[in-house]
Design brief:
mainly alpha, Globin-like, 253 residues, three-stranded antiparallel beta sheet, 3 domains, 13 helices, Multidrug-efflux Transporter Regulator, Chain: A, Domain 2
Length: 253
Amino acid sequence: MATQEWSIQEIARVAGTTSRTLRHYDDVGLLAPSRIGSNGYRYYDQHCLVQLQRILLLRELGLGLPAIADVLDGERDSAAALAVHLEWLRQERDRIDRQIASVTTTLRKLEGGEQIMATEALDGFDHTQYKDEVIERWGKDAWERGDDWWRSLSDEDKHEFKQRQHDIAGDFTQALKDGKSADSDDVQAIVQRQYDWIAVGWQGKRPTADEFVGLGQMYVDDPRFRANYDRHGEGTAAFIRDAMVAYAERVLR
């Protein structure tokens, strides 16, 4: 029985990515095609599909390509690895279900004039869920400083901090809609606010040029950040990244 294969265009379409991305995955040793035809076309079999699914799941966790390569290299058993991913997805589904229930309850009580309970309104919203990820990216000290700082804030301060970022993202979106370039003076003024906002969250530590550029790239690469920024307007995450790169070159280097 012949093994079913799919062309690179078919795989890219189903995965919601691009042929260029799949070729890049091959270049960095993450996903080689099962074969390359005499016409130069790349084809992918079932094994490739499983490997791509694992890559996409790890990207959902916010891992960069080098970290994904390390994980895949250490997980030769695809079934066991997918079982771990499945458990994470179930936990994430449960957390989102709790958030939906929390917001639904809050809305119902607001509309009915009922007293809102903190345990109901905040169920499912827990910044510590990202503890391991922060430690992996920036170290244990960074997590502990950030966690101590966040817990020290009043509810009003936390709301103000989040609102500042919401306003900054909205201004980026408006600048994009107005056709302004990422390196224009107006947009760079918004980036300055973004930089200052990040420095507050880093307890006064000023991001270096490379750190700032890396954060901007993460806004595009990490589906969670990209979705958060692009909800203001499609393409906002990429626009912010480009603006942050321009700022790093102009101000930080």
